[in-house]
Amino acid sequence: SYVLTQPPSVSVAPGKTARISCGGDIIGVKSVHWYQQRPGQAPVLVISYDTDRPSGIPERFSSSKSGNTATLSITTVEAGDEADYYCQVWDSDIDHVVFGGGTKLTVL
Amino acid sequence: QVQLVQSGTEVKKPGSSVKVSCKASGDTFSGYGIIWVRQAPGQGLEWMGGIIPMFDTTHSAQDFRGRVTFTADESTDIGYVELSSLTSGDTAVYYCARSSVRGTTFQAGDSWGQGTLVTVSS
Questions:
Q1: Chain A residue numbers touching B97 (CB-CB < 8 A)
Q2: Of B37, B45, B105, Cβ closest to residue A90
Q3: Closest C-alpha among B50, B65, B44 to residue B4
Q4: In this structure, are residues B34 and B79 in contact, taking their beta carbons and an 8 Å threshold?
Q5: CB contact under 8 A, A97 and B35
Q6: Do the Cβ atoms of A43 and A86 come closer than 8 Å?
Q7: What is the pLDDT of residues B16-74, one digit of tens each?
């Protein structure tokens, strides 16, 4: 089955840029969606269809793809960005939503 | 802006079934799918499956096939998931989300319910 690979953790100082990777076979041809989940809360969509930012999501959040990797970037990181982040695609081979394992972002 | 409100905490015995509901307000499920995702304590997100009411289409994750049912009542904008043959391994928070669709595929979950804790214990 299709696998999305994320680093378990990323740490960044306030004001710096955080980059969270999501690796998967031929991810370039799939639409990638990203979610933020703060402790004890439901996930929130922060990027859809590779690059679209839903209403209310700051411009500091963006995403890109290169080769077999998608990357979520968060510029000028704030303490409030500390959360788990998940990437997600649709696997058309088995008609299945696939989530990455999640990355815990720590703001130092 | 749609809001999804889920039914309350459930405590179930092993071998029993649970049914969780998800009601949309402020907007509808029309033109969207409803997906169900669960999260065991300290773990990541696990997709269970979902339903696209306008096509009367369901998809289920392989791990749940045979014991999960997804339904939706379009007249009341409520979605349901029912999981049977419960074990302690099904103890988790269960989330619904409204999902954009592309044809009969699920894409982005743009709004999520608050989550329903299901505890399976003898």
A1: 43
A2: B105
A3: B50
A4: yes
A5: yes
A6: yes
A7: 999 999 999 998 899 999 999 999 999 999 999 999 999 999 999 999 989 999 999 99
